[in-house]
Amino acid sequence: MPPPAGILFIITAPSGAGKTSLVRALISRDPSLTLSVSHTTRPPRPGEIDGEHYHFVTPERFTAMVQADAFLEWAEVHGNCYGTARANVESTLASGRDLLLEIDWQGAQQVRAKHPAVGIFILPPSFSELEARLRRRATETPETIQRRLFNARRELEHVDEFEYAIINDSFDRALSELHAIVQAERCRTVRQRQRHPLAFQTP
Ligand code: 5GP
Predict the structure, then answer these.
(1) Could you point out which of 20, 98, 138, 161 has its C-alpha 20 to 30 Å from the C-alpha of 114?
(2) What is the mean pLDDT of each run of 10 residues along the chain (203 residues)?
(3) How many CB atoms lie within 10 A of CB 184?
(4) Which residue's CA is the nearest one to ligand 1's atom 2?
(5) Any ligand 1 atom below 6 A from CB of 17
(6) CA–CA separation, 63 vs 98, rounded Å?
(7) pTM beyond cutoff 0.90
(8) Domain assignments of the chain as residue spans, ordered by start
(9) Hey, what CATH topology would domain 8-190 get?
């Protein structure tokens, strides 16, 4: 019998809310989680590695993948295209591993229309703190920061579409909450019944 399908987690946050650091810390705390590596037409930032942070592709390659229906979801975010390759999601979940998608609200809507998923939204403690974090990041131009702030307002309008909301005012607490959500979802009776059938059998 194949293993029960893994859980699909979607993590969404406005740019600068601290999502990427939280997700990386979560994966090292819980290595049984797999992080999906998206495709993007955005150029790599200093230190970003192709195949690890993203699959960096040309707009032509991205369009060809869209036409080949290779994406489970894709969206234009901050002027670049981002997408989640369908094949990787399906094979990871089918192998029983839980998978994390770090995608925006548009992608979250597309995925949830096709696949059951647990949505987690990460909020910055305030809008002014978000702005300060984006400025501290120093990898963005002033125009990019303005665009990301504008998009953050739009992103926040979708928070109620997610089952869980985490306020990232303390990294350690936010990380604990994120991990607690993952663990609680794994303990849902319907999933425990699939993963541990013997425990539910009466003699
Ligand atoms: P960044 O350029 O800062 O790495 O990411 C910008 C935004 O794109 C973030 O909100 C991130 O969640 C979103 N994003 C990254 N990968 C994907 C993806 O595969 N699909 C969608 N829809 N959004 C993505």
Answers:
(1) 20
(2) 88 89 95 96 95 97 98 94 96 96 97 96 91 80 85 92 96 97 97 93 89
(3) 11
(4) 42
(5) no
(6) 28
(7) yes
(8) 8-190
(9) Rossmann fold (3.40.50)
